[in-house]
Design a protein that fits this description.
seven-stranded parallel sheet, Rossmann fold, alpha/beta, six-stranded parallel sheet, single chain, 381 residues, 15% strand, 2 domains, globular
């Protein structure tokens, strides 16, 4: 008999972890429910897919602990955490597995699992390094996982290796790359991409795209820094501030104007038509300055048959292959500009080979079907 799964996510916002959860919860919708500790647009998206969603009363109280928070802030959250654990434990008693989809949800899920005797699976979307998490956050998460996790599913070999390097138990770990549905990118009419270009007033100019939430570690400022060395190239940013990053958004928008490239930068905010927008670009830039645990945007660009320029750390080489010619040092605007200029002028036959190679690899290795198969194995273990 298939297990009854209680998915737990700490936020209702739509970040990369949540976009990955959507097809997983939809797959198991007849025998699962999703618990959110905070409301947001994710609840509506889940409901549209026929997934049962529950908001956990008081769950927001434990969300004040930040990734780089210290011991005092963590201690201050203990009463809220314990209250959330008790409420989650009551819900979990009618399920066979608790599936924690984020680090904050994992903390309460591990404790609720111990309280009720329910196995806990943690899908780890993060790369557990000091660049992303304070020491106390890493130690707490790893310690709880070693104590209480039935299994830890990592979204890449890079996130697995970081988890183990921090003291995580390698015997508990499997890898299930965060899957993307390739069919979303199969049929995008050329007339629609022309309409997008008219919408943002770029005409026939070369257009590079950056997709995802606006955050300093995602490196949107690096692309802006590179634009003066990319003559005539326009940049479109699809996404917005999500987790309190509005100041960064305002700063980089002002910086683009200061550099004199404001007329070549286009801010579209969050959009639902990412496949169409990607196909409207000549190439996609992924310029994270801290190691990327997976890189969903990279996979989407591969499936959209668009060249991608990516920072050479984290999972990027894992996705694109170490011989890929457009991996650049993180934070290096000059190298990014050179790579973009080189990609835009590469002979079509050579570039076409890379595009088709990337597309084949993405559909084979990083599809939702591949992810489902690995998650099924982890849940059945």
């Amino acid at each position: 008999m298939s297990p009854r799964i209680l998915f737990v996510n700490h936020t209702g916002e739509l970040g990369g972890a949540e976009l990955t959860l959507l097809p997983v919860a939809h797959r198991y919708r007849d025998r699962c429910a999703v618990v959110l500790l905070k409301d947001g647009p994710l609840r509506g998206r889940m409901t549209q897919l026929g997934v049962t969603v529950m908001l956990l009363p008081g769950g927001e109280g434990m969300l004040g602990v930040k990734r780089q928070g210290g011991a005092l802030r963590a201690l201050a959250s203990v009463p809220a955490v314990l209250g959330t654990v008790r409420r989650l434990g009551r819900l979990a008693r009618t399920f066979d597995v608790i599936y924690a989809n984020t680090q904050k949800s994992a903390v309460v899920s591990f404790l609720a699992g111990k309280l009720t005797g329910t196995p806990v699976v943690w899908y780890l979307h993060d790369i557990m390094t000091e660049q992303h998490f304070a020491g106390i956050q890493r130690k707490a998460a790893i310690g709880l996982a070693n104590w209480a996790a039935h299994s830890v599913i990592c979204n890449s070999a890079a996130s697995r290796d970081a988890f183990v390097a921090c003291g995580g138990d390698p015997k508990r770990v499997t890898v299930a790359p965060a899957g993307v549905d390739p069919h979303l990118f199969d049929e995008v009419p050329g007339s629609n991409t022309d309409a997008i270009r008219r919408e943002i007033h770029v005409g026939d100019a070369p257009l590079v795209g950056m997709f995802g939430r606006l955050a300093a570690w995602k490196g949107q400022h690096v692309l802006i820094d590179a634009l003066p060395e990319m003559e005539g190239v326009h940049a479109v940013f699809v996404g917005d501030a999500l987790f309190g990053e509005e100041r960064y958004r305002d700063e980089i928008q002002a910086y683009a104007r200061t550099l004199g490239v404001g007329g070549r930068v286009h801010w579209l905010g969050f959009r639902d038509d990412v496949p169409l927008l990607m196909r409207s670009c000549d190439l996609v830039v992924h310029a994270s300055v801290s190691p990327e645990p997976f890189g969903r945007v990279i996979v989407e660009a591969m499936m959209a048959r668009r060249p991608v320029i990516a920072s050479a750390h984290g999972a990027s080489a894992e996705l694109l292959g170490p011989e890929y010619p457009f991996l650049v040092p993180p934070g290096d605007a000059a190298a990014l500009a050179e790579a973009v200029n080189r990609a835009l002028t590469m002979p079509p036959l050579e570039m076409g080979w890379w595009i088709e190679h990337n597309h084949e690899q993405a559909c084979k290795r990083f599809s939702t079907d591949t992810m489902f198969a690995e998650i099924d194995r982890a849940l059945a273990a």
